[in-house]
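User: two proteins, same treatment. go.

Assistant:
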Amino acid sequence: METLQFYGYLFIGLAVAISVHEAAHAAMAYRLGDPTAKNQGRLTLNPLKHLDPIGTLMLFIARFGWGKPVPVNPNNFKNPVQDSALTSFAGPAANFITALVISLPIKYLDMPFWLADILWLTFDINIILGIFNLLPFPPLDGSKIFAIFVPKRFHKQYFAFLKQSEVGFLIFIVADIFLIRNILGYSILWSVLSHVFFFVKSIILIGA
């Protein structure tokens, strides 16, 4: 029962984090002139619009999941590279803001243990999702954010590189989760990100 309860809480936390993340992408894209996501019903906090079936299943298999990427058409932007970066940054930023909002009742309100557990897990997931997506590797948001630092004359080559290397990085993530963490009990990504996670978590709690 405790395991089922944990996965129930995990599902709630992931549904909240992914919905906030993807809805923020859609909202920023729409504000900057691209209605693609809005036209496909993604400008909403409804988890059913954002959860990916396979990504949700992976949550119960590997405690790691993902949502459906929000469709974005850079051709609708006035400044494609800059506006794409802003749209990409909106997702992680929304996760950090959500974590800050959640930290307030955690710190200042008395609540049942089960509700506190849900809020703490949702708080952590939002921070992890925000940090993870800032990594400058495709298809993560950080790869598009990093594009604003690439000289304009290299933009074509850079975006071509992103498309070509998406599969390779996804394979690395899967290998890190299934082969390395589940078999050896060690995650390369988490060994790096954990330090950033605890730092950001401390800053948000202190700020609250």
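Protein 2:
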Amino acid sequence: MQQQVLFEDLGVKQYKTVWDYQEQLLKQNADIKLLFRYTNDVKAPEHELPTSSHLLFVEHPPVYTLGKNGKEAHVLISEQERMEKGIEYYHINRGGDITFHGPGQLVGYPILDLEKFKTDLGWYLRTLEEVIIQTMAEYGLKGERSAGETGVWMDANIKGMERKICAMGIKCSRWITMHGFAFNVNTNLDYFNHIVPCGIANKAVTSLQQELGHAVDMEEVKYRVKKNFEQLFGCVLISH
């Protein structure tokens, strides 16, 4: 039986608002698991617990986010310069280093109960990457993985040509995920000049627009990402 995943397109929303929302959804699921695990009169297999999985799409106003083990030194502009440019900044609780979110970038936040899918974070990340790789293929682009570097790249194995098109960083608690991917569609790549993206020096960042030479319809990209997400995760997205 296919899992149902509640889908919401949040439009353009401030980073902190959506971070708080993700935390709320994760906590609701974690509380359900705790209740069922420690209440003697209720017994159920993990995959039958009434947790809910979600997929959120959003575009953020300009913001830099630093992962829990990231390095502050990878922010290359001063706080004053950043504020003058209208870029927010948060040190957050996902894996990974520094990245940028902003207009023209499709950010996806899956809040999935992996006990209803597969309890394997490697599998989860590789599947997320494959969603983007298959979406890129629909535009005639070859997305690739780079050994030891989460996310989706182009020309990953050609020295000096490597460029990242989709960053990923997650948190997982009680097998419930949050945070996710940031897919550069029509993103202004100049924002990446002020950071060391994902803490990886000397490698470029790109976007669908950059690679194709023209702006891409964001709604079309969303449709294709959703379709590939359903196929690869074996789920049905239900608009919420």
